[in-house]
């Protein structure tokens, strides 16, 4: 009989296989020069498919709560953390697809963001798993792995700042750029939950509750905080919208409402201040 964790793994395999097919289709359809974001999503899907396949094998080979930290589970732990790299790169690439709202300086910031992302990937692979956690069904990160995940957190702060700055220039965007920015903004809450899970996953101590432990931790917690969040983000990114309906997107509606509020409140106040200043300075 398949255990609960095995069922979750099977469903996850099916879902990420579908998104792998969709992302590969987008790579072919977009052509050279516009498919880097979709390539990153394809890499993420492959990473998650490999991770879940290894986890499913370990789940079926060993009884629940007793599986030792084998090479299979060590690979699952490393791949779980590495999945953030293509997720970050795809988001940064989507923001780079904008032109006028982004500006040249922000373009270089988003490009240079790939350097700490690659550094964090190297640290996680090199760090691996704490040898002291291999004797039982436990997981603990090394200091190098923790440093890599901390770099992820710093990159996320930069990514949020870049999203806010570019979205504040929405009035310069064309309809396609409005679509891209709306996709990124709507996916950010799911990204936050995924980042929080990865931080707990990496910094949970060997002698802690081990609820985020990839080997014998809480499967429901992982399902809700990692798998569901990443699937929701992928759905936001790969869903194709009708360009003629872009004016009805969330971000554009928010921009229109904020502009209306400014027109009703700020502009009359500025006119009054201008009139009052003219009366005071009148000879």
UniProtKB/TrEMBL annotation:
The keyword Membrane applies. Pfam families: DUF7702. The chain crosses the membrane at residues 6-28, 35-54, 74-96, 108-129, 149-172, 184-207, 259-277. Residues 3-232 form the DUF7702 domain. InterPro entries: DUF7702. Keywords: Membrane, Transmembrane, Transmembrane helix. The keyword Membrane applies. It comes from the Eukaryota. PANTHER family: INTEGRAL MEMBRANE PROTEIN, UNPLACED GENOMIC SCAFFOLD UM_SCAF_CONTIG_1.265, WHOLE GENOME SHOTGUN SEQUENCE. This is DUF7702 domain-containing protein.
């Amino acid at each position: 009989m398949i255990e609960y964790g095995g069922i979750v793994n099977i469903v996850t395999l099916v879902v990420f296989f579908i998104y792998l097919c969709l992302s590969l289709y987008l790579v072919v359809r977009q052509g050279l020069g516009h498919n880097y974001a979709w390539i990153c999503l394809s890499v993420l899907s492959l990473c998650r498919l490999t991770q879940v396949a290894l986890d499913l094998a370990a789940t079926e080979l060993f009884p629940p709560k007793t599986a030792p930290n084998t090479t299979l589970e060590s690979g699952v732990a490393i791949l779980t953390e590495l999945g953030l790299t293509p997720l970050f790169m795809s988001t940064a690439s989507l923001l780079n697809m904008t032109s006028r709202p982004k500006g040249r300086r922000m373009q270089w910031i988003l490009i240079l963001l790939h350097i700490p992302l690659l550094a964090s990937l190297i640290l996680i692979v090199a760090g691996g798993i704490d040898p002291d956690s291999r004797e039982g069904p436990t997981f603990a990160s090394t200091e190098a792995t923790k440093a890599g995940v901390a770099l992820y957190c710093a990159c996320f702060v930069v990514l949020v700042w870049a999203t806010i700055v570019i979205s504040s220039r929405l009035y310069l965007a064309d309809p396609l750029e409005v679509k891209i920015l709306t996709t990124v903004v709507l996916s950010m809450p799911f990204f936050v939950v995924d980042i929080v899970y990865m931080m707990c996953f990496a910094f949970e101590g060997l002698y802690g509750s081990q609820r985020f432990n990839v080997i014998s931790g809480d499967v429901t917690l992982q399902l809700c905080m990692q798998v569901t969040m990443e699937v929701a983000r992928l759905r936001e990114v790969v869903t194709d919208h009708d360009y003629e309906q872009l004016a009805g997107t969330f971000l554009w509606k928010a921009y229109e409402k904020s502009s209306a509020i400014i027109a009703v409140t700020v502009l009359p106040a500025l006119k009054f201040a201008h009139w009052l200043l003219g009366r005071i300075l009148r000879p």
